[in-house]
Design goal:
single chain; about 55% helix; about 325 residues; Rossmann fold
């Protein structure tokens, strides 16, 4: 048998398909150029104020501490006094906190007054819309309208209201908006208001990016996968599932079967344990890049599951995504 030089065979294949070699070359050039461009940082960051919502815990809390350690002046919006006090104890005197309820326009107006006094004529460099909730999540016929509006008020309408109030200050600084969506702004994994709210954040951010481009404002969307935060707390989700189940009419319970609640809770708990990352910096580093890079990305996928599973899955036919979700979650008794 004649010896076949695999390297020579590969080279012959490339020569016989010039379009492949051209595509490979262009890809390499693109990646190198993007790496170089994304390494350029905005100057005078010590004079550029950033407002972050939802700083009581999770991504917002870590980002506030991270930016403060870089010498960037942060105004941290916290929902509770306890959250504000806890953050202040971990940061420098440069960081300012304020109580902010993103579902209350009066609270947002007070925040605008506070921020205006802090930034002066420079305007606001960065707005990070991070505040968000996820529960209740569950089968759609377990839910009521108020279950959807509870989440939409925070995750979508809150983002819109805060952004609209702060746009005049952002225009002054030709600043940045960083909106925290989710990988489930691309794929709908479970019923409830969370996925619709994140789809909405994606659409609002895309419109905002195009409309604000003439004014020098750049808009970035962060699409995290699963991370260990209050949003993915299995204890909270299981408590809400039990509450939803207990209020269901008996005929709906019968259609799902007596073991469905436990099976659903177990599957959800297992999925979160397998997928959730404890390294929140994978997300906050994307957020920081969106605020400090001269050429930020329009979208950042954060987390191994987002990049290797959910984003590729979002481009495949829907029946493939349905199959994956059916593997992760149980089916009703009467399916």
């Amino acid at each position: 048998m004649a010896y076949v030089d695999k390297n020579e065979t590969f080279q012959q294949a490339i020569r016989s398909h010039p379009l492949l070699s051209l595509a490979a070359l262009l890809t390499i050039v693109f990646l190198i150029c993007r790496f170089i461009l994304e390494s350029f940082k905005v100057d005078s960051l010590a004079q550029r104020h950033v407002l972050i919502t939802g700083c009581d815990s999770g991504f917002g809390n870590l980002l506030a501490r991270q930016l403060d350690s870089r010498g960037i002046p942060v105004i941290a919006g916290c929902f509770t006094e306890k959250g504000a006090a806890g953050l202040s104890a971990l940061t420098s005197s440069r960081l300012k906190t304020l109580q902010l309820n993103v579902t209350d326009s009066a609270s947002i107006k007070k925040a605008v007054e506070f921020v205006t006094a802090e930034v002066g004529q420079r305007g606001l460099w960065g707005l990070v819309n991070n505040a968000g909730i996820s529960s209740p999540i569950g089968p759609i016929d377990w839910l009521k309208l108020e279950d959807f509006t509870k989440i939409l008020d925070v995750n979508l309408l809150g983002v819109i209201d805060v952004t609209l109030h702060f746009l005049p200050l952002l225009k002054k600084a030709k600043g940045r908006v960083v909106n925290i969506a989710s990988i489930f702004g691309r794929l709908a994994l479970a019923g409830g208001g969370y996925c619709p709210s994140k789809y909405g954040v994606e659409a609002f951010s895309d419109c905002l990016r195009k409309d604000m481009q003439p004014f020098g404002i750049k808009v970035s969307i962060i699409e995290p996968g699963f991370f260990q935060t209050a949003v993915t707390s299995s204890k909270i989700h299981e408590g809400d599932l039990k509450r939803l189940w207990d209020r269901l009419p008996q005929d709906v319970k019968d259609s799902y079967g007596t073991t469905f609640l436990q099976e659903y809770s177990d599957a959800q708990r297992l999925s979160l344990r397998l997928l959730c990352s404890s390294d929140l910096s994978k997300v906050t580093n994307c957020m920081e890049h969106g605020l400090t890079a001269c050429y930020p990305r329009s979208r950042y996928g954060a987390g191994w599951d987002a990049k290797l599973l959910w984003i590729p899955l979002s481009y495949l036919p829907s029946f493939m995504a349905d199959f994956v979700f059916n593997v992760l979650l149980p089916l009703p008794k009467s399916h």
